[in-house]
Input
Amino acid sequence: MTRDEALALDAADPLARFHDAFALPDGVIYLDGNSLGPPPRAVHDRLTEVSRRQWGEGLVRSWNTADWIGAPTRVGDKIAQRIGADPGEVTVADSTTVNLFKLAAGACSLRPGRTTILSEAGNFPTDLYAVQGLGALLEDRVRLKTVAPDELLDAIDEDTAAVILTQVHYKTSRRWDLAAVTAAAHAKGALMLWDLCHSVGAIAVDLNGAQADLAVGCSYKYLNGGPGAPAFLFVAKRHQGAIRSPLTGWMGHAEPFAFEDGYRACADIRGQITGTPPILGLAALEAGLDLQLQAVPTLVEAKGLALAELFIAEAQARAADPSLVLTGPREAAARGLHVSFAHPQGYALVQAMMARGIIGDFRSPDIARFGFSPLFLSYAQVWDAAETLADVLATRAWDRPEFHQRAAVT
Amino acid sequence: MTRDEALALDAADPLARFHDAFALPDGVIYLDGNSLGPPPRAVHDRLTEVSRRQWGEGLVRSWNTADWIGAPTRVGDKIAQRIGADPGEVTVADSTTVNLFKLAAGACSLRPGRTTILSEAGNFPTDLYAVQGLGALLEDRVRLKTVAPDELLDAIDEDTAAVILTQVHYKTSRRWDLAAVTAAAHAKGALMLWDLCHSVGAIAVDLNGAQADLAVGCSYKYLNGGPGAPAFLFVAKRHQGAIRSPLTGWMGHAEPFAFEDGYRACADIRGQITGTPPILGLAALEAGLDLQLQAVPTLVEAKGLALAELFIAEAQARAADPSLVLTGPREAAARGLHVSFAHPQGYALVQAMMARGIIGDFRSPDIARFGFSPLFLSYAQVWDAAETLADVLATRAWDRPEFHQRAAVT
Output
């Protein structure tokens, strides 16, 4: 592809109108929206509104007058629109980790007697850790079992309480078939808990179409909710009356302001809320969502996959370095919106790219990862990034001492 | 006391210089800083800095360059200065509810074989609910036991894994003796877990002086951290190597960015962190703390108690309504910084006060509660508030239909 051809794609891009909704720094091509999405312009004013007017002037009254109390489910309902869930099936709450713990325990409460929670080896660590912690607390009455991805479907059995998978793998970008895996779990009587961290706002997700049971996800990637933005969780309506959350807090009580000594769970999705909702984080997230909801999910997915395809093709066509190896599947339909290359100098490679304004990230031990958020990236930017990658490799630009000094967060 | 005498107290108030650090709305006397502290002026610019510069320009790089990754323990170390803890003993994490769950489970891990967690009936609900949820998950291997406050010390026994108490009661304002109760727990081999929600930033707390084991607290009251600001927890150094958190997430791992499949807990306080830290909430909280740390804790407590004393004395002297009954202890040393009156029309009374610009809050079933945050309130304001309360009672100003319509959040 020539750069002019990339520019022609931009001219015809139905999502190009979203570029102006972001104000990225000059000279930066941001290929890390899959780690931390950039702020929509509107988020700054939204935060000022919440901080100065709602908090500063409304004070405690804003729990009612600004409907802070309704924010977790109001914002949850907006997320629901992007993951194929119905109103009342999603709430914002806690972190992805804490939500995994709640729903893993909840799945066990729905499948008493079953002792295994199944996942894949190499899943995002927190998904595995959350279940390991639950198992340790329960003295191995429930245990995490991990198997290689290609053994996963066969490993589901009558002892499996739940299968937990990240739909799009954080490292390889490999995508699980939501409907097929859910059906395989159900065939053995197991529940399916999807981690949508790398899906939501990126690819078209249809939880109810797949009859999924449970899901979690973060909001700071493709939803542009801000650093450490609050996470969300989904419980299918059919499970809401029966599922038990182990994290019972006052905001999940049927009547929080009755201040009773005994816990009575709210029977709807609010029973999964624990403590006081994080209003500043919710406000930033809602601004990101309000933008996201203006875009058509199938167009978002298609553009993201096309950008990733462009990057892979152009990088492989130009890069003379045979040690740059694509990890994960080559075909677009089997991937999410990020692309990972293994390279012996992966860390330094990412640093050298950053020094030229191309921001990606590194994942241990040797992965250079680049994400293709469809709302703010152009085809021409991705073309430029691929050319830069080829040049960095050809000139061994990564071979400078400062690019090998590891920061705290890699 | 005359109003001129109140003004004289203001003129001599060593904390009066803090009033200008807040911008409260005209016509408002804010007696609800014990529920949601108002924003310090500096918080708005801090949020703008984080939102526009760190997030918008620094993007994902700010995890290193703005030390977002260090924020939970950096801010935790600042909180430590207000609760008698050492550096490295406090981290910001999750909500109070989730932290209670973690530390209650952690206490059980430190006291294997003991099956009771003891608290007082009528403690803040989330403290009770968190333990009830833990007990249900553990199928009653651990159980919450609640007793009347005056029976509590005698109820501690060799089966008690931990005693959980809120130092200052959310409703009555009654204050437990931190050192004496901790010693009583230790005498039976139990651990002491303090909830400092109504203490931190209000009264002088010395956890290590009392040899306390564990503590939690929220930061949106007297620390002015913002609505739903992230909570904190304390684990005494001597317990950090041994305590097990049940909520094991990637941010509590010894090497989060090694992305290992197996959880290895960080041996220091960071082992209690679960998911990605909430940066916007942490930023607002840090601004509140930076202000708080300029005030001398003993002066803060003394002024708050004096304001509360002024309000009680003036209200009782002026209020002809015998159905207004102070709940909790009368003597200042036995209270925290809020004052609760029971009144048959408690809800409408609070609404009528709010209509006159005096913001307090209601607690079911009949409590009108008023808080006396020392950094932004003046003696003259409290004198005015007491006069208004007397007038509202004398004129039955609460007796209007609109004051009886309950909002979602009461």
In short: Chain B has 13 helices and 13 strands. Chain B touches chain A through 98 residues (CB under 8 Å). Chain B has two domains: 3-30+296-404, 46-292. Residues 297-318 of chain B form the longest helix (22 residues).
